[in-house]
Amino acid sequence: MDQYLQAALEEAKTGYEEGGIPIGSVLVHKDKILGRGHNKRVQEGSVVLHGEMDALENAGRQPATVYRECVLYTTLSPCPMCSGTILLYGIPKVVIGENRTFMGEEELLRSRGVEVEVVDSQECVELMQRFIQEKPTLWNEDIGV
Amino acid sequence: MDQYLQAALEEAKTGYEEGGIPIGSVLVHKDKILGRGHNKRVQEGSVVLHGEMDALENAGRQPATVYRECVLYTTLSPCPMCSGTILLYGIPKVVIGENRTFMGEEELLRSRGVEVEVVDSQECVELMQRFIQEKPTLWNEDIGV
Questions:
Q1: pLDDT one-digit tens code per residue, A58-100
Q2: B87 in contact with A at a CB cutoff of 8 Å?
Q3: Residue B17 catalytic?
Q4: Nearest C-alpha of chain B: how many angstroms from A102?
Q5: Nearest-Cα residue of chain A relative to residue B56
Q6: CMP/dCMP-type deaminase domain: which residues (chains A, B) (predicted)?
Q7: A43 lies within 8 A of chain B by CB
Q8: Is the ipTM of this complex over 0.90?
Q9: What distances in angstroms separate CA B38 from CA A52, B15, B77, one per listed residue?
Q10: Smallest Cα distance from B39 to chain A, Å
């Protein structure tokens, strides 16, 4: 597995160990991780800090020129909020661990010119499957169901 | 002006007085404000807390059934991030102060069944116009330009 997706998966595993929702993400600019994060719904009671949002928040304020040279790695297909954020900042490429347990707004992203790569990582799938089986209500809350 | 849009405008003015980006929002459930907020880019160095996101964050974790009975009020047309968040949580209606200084993803929202009402408030327009004239670089950063 690519080192950046591996870093995102490590974030997801940290979230799982904290009793949270195991989705992780890293924002990469020219082979350097600018920010990493994981879903903070449980840990911080946050409704906006999905993994991708947390990674962006931890990367801090960046000029548009930087975002336009970034790749966002995430263990799970990005939901409408995270996809909208990718569009807001003009991030040109997203690498997704898997979309079997949840299909996000990949078509919207592609229709707006974002390059979307789905790795289909079995390790990412298994982590989410385990979590969803253990805490289905928490998972539904996170995706507005 | 509607009392809830007025509350959102008060949030926006608070943001302006703090030296921040003057966009405010309130989340309303059955005639009660669940959360209010304003853009926190300057105040907290946040790249995710737009006014709408801050209002949702301050409303805290809510079940999907509550979001589906809410109206989100915002002084400015919602950007892709905030629009995606509206879609994620299934908020059925958005009341927008104005869309003259920035046109957000109103068409995407409508295409997904969200009711979008644009008040076209002169007071909202003037506050944004003053801010954009004073701090154009900060404004561009906030919308990824």
A1: 999 999 999 999 999 999 999 999 999 999 999 999 999 999 9
A2: yes
A3: no
A4: 13
A5: A47
A6: 1-116
A7: no
A8: yes
A9: 21, 6, 14
A10: 14
pLDDT at position B11: 98
Q: Are strands B70-76 and B93-98 parallel, antiparallel or unpaired?
A: parallel
Are B48 and A49 an interchain contact pair (Cβ–Cβ within 8 Å)? yes
The pair of structure tokens assigned to B17 is 């007085």
Q: What is the pLDDT of residue B41?
A: 98
Domains and CATH numbers, chain A: 3-143 (3.40.140.10)
Model confidence at B25: pLDDT above 90: yes
Residue B96 to residue A107: CA distance in whole angstroms: 27
Asked whether the CA dihedral A145, B3, B8, B14 is positive or negative, the reply is negative
Distance from CA of B42 to the nearest CA of A (A): 9
pLDDT in tens, B45-101: 999 999 999 999 999 999 999 999 999 999 999 999 999 999 999 999 999 999 999
Cβ within 8 Å, pair B145-A64: yes
Using one digit for the tens of pLDDT, what is the confidence trace for B103-120?
A: 999 999 999 999 999 999
Q: Are B73 and B56 in contact (CB under 8 A)?
A: no
pLDDT for the residue B1: 83
Looking at residue B119, its pLDDT comes to 98
Indicate the angle between helix axes B51-59 and B3-17, nearest 10 degrees: 110
How long a stretch of residues is chain B?
145
Query: CB under 8 Å to B18, separation ≥6 — which residues?
Result: B42, B43
Sheet bearing B70-76, strands edge to edge: B32-38, B24-29, B70-76, B93-98, B115-118
Are B49 and A48 a contacting pair, CB within 8 Å?
A: yes
- Tokens 């707004």 belong to which residue? A105
